[in-house]
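Researcher: Structure prediction, please.
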Amino acid sequence: MPDQRYMKDRTSLYVLFFGMVLIISLIILLLPYETVYVQDEAYLDTFLIVIVASVIVFFLGTLYNVLLWMEGKGLVGTPEGRLLRLLPRILKFVLSRRFGRILSVFLKDALYLSKLKGRSVLRWATHLLVLGGFAAMFLLDLLVTFSLDFLKYQPMIEDGGWAKLWIRDFGFELVGFMMLVGLTMATVRRFIFKPKILRTELPDATSILFLLAVVLGGFILEGMGIAGRIPGHQVDQAYSFLGYAFSQLMPGSAGQYYDQAWLIHGVMSALLIAYIPFSKLFHMIATPIAIEADKMLPTRVR
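Model: Predicted structure follows.
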């Protein structure tokens, strides 16, 4: 009987999980991508294959972390069964008034890092720039994708549109600049000053250098687009202030390699998504959520 219950829980969870992954993958593949400026569609097709594979790895890694956490001592049933029973509670919680209060605490502790601010302003500023910039980049991506591919919002599409200039150009540039400053501070502190109280292990170094390469690569790609006068990079270039600065160091012929650079940057960004569940960035965000979800789990009667 316990084995049958375990198989039922496991089957139900994985059917739900892979159904969700399939829906997200189909959305990614079916989006029109009309404002992607690569000329050779083979580069776009390659990117789509990599991003779908990376999203699958991201969700598998996230599920693995959650099930590992569900194996806590003193909890009732299988990890899969506990997670299935937790999902309706989470939905009810998200729709409740309590969610707003908990969200404010989460933003204060997990993103603003209020407790860290009192211990070290430099560490606090570094984490805030990186983590806050990462969160803002994700939200901007959602907003822009929805505006471009679903709403077909013209001010977001047209070269001189206010949304194109202030959100797609300046907004992404500002958020990327925040991350670049924070990552530079983290790199200098960990690899140059090397304070005795700070241990830099392989996961720390990988996360910092991976993020730094992706962010810096985005500015280089923007510079290549401006220097090569690629469509979408020809009007009011100063809104992309760092990309414009990089373009001043590049010849016009750099635009010939825009497609290849776009693919490299896209693949690195996709691989970063796949890496998140196995990095410290994931645990920095997930730990406060796990603490709150822990209160919803049934425990054994003593």
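Model: The longest helix spans residues 162-193.
Researcher: Thanks, that helps.
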